[in-house]
Design brief:
Number of strands: 4
Helix content: 10-25%
Radius of gyration: 21 Å
């Protein structure tokens, strides 16, 4: 009997088409312009990884694909960054006169 791992769903395999998408990112802006690289094999996975990096608070410099830069830093932050948090409203305590 062949072992089959248990999964709650069957995910479609991600096929490698030969494309390479690069995300240049860093925890803080580098002085020498040397960015960390993350390489994926599809635009969708590059966008998901960039979203995750932005969610963690990292800087995403750009996402590039076979045809050049797909999203620059400003566009990536606007399109993929976390939604702005609404300011908290302050409540004043009610003083009862007894």
């Amino acid at each position: 009997m062949q072992y089959r791992p248990r999964t709650s769903f069957r995910a479609a395999p991600e096929y490698d088409t030969g494309e390479r998408w690069t995300i240049r990112w860093e925890t803080r802006r580098p002085d020498g312009g040397r960015w960390s690289l993350a390489i994926t094999n599809s635009r969708e996975s590059a966008v998901e990884r960039a979203k995750h990096l932005l969610k963690l608070g990292f800087i995403v410099h750009d996402i590039s694909g076979p045809d050049g830069v797909f999203l620059n830093e400003k566009e990536a932050l606007q399109q993929l960054g976390p939604a702005p948090v609404a300011p908290k409203t302050t409540r004043t305590p009610v003083v009862s006169e007894v």
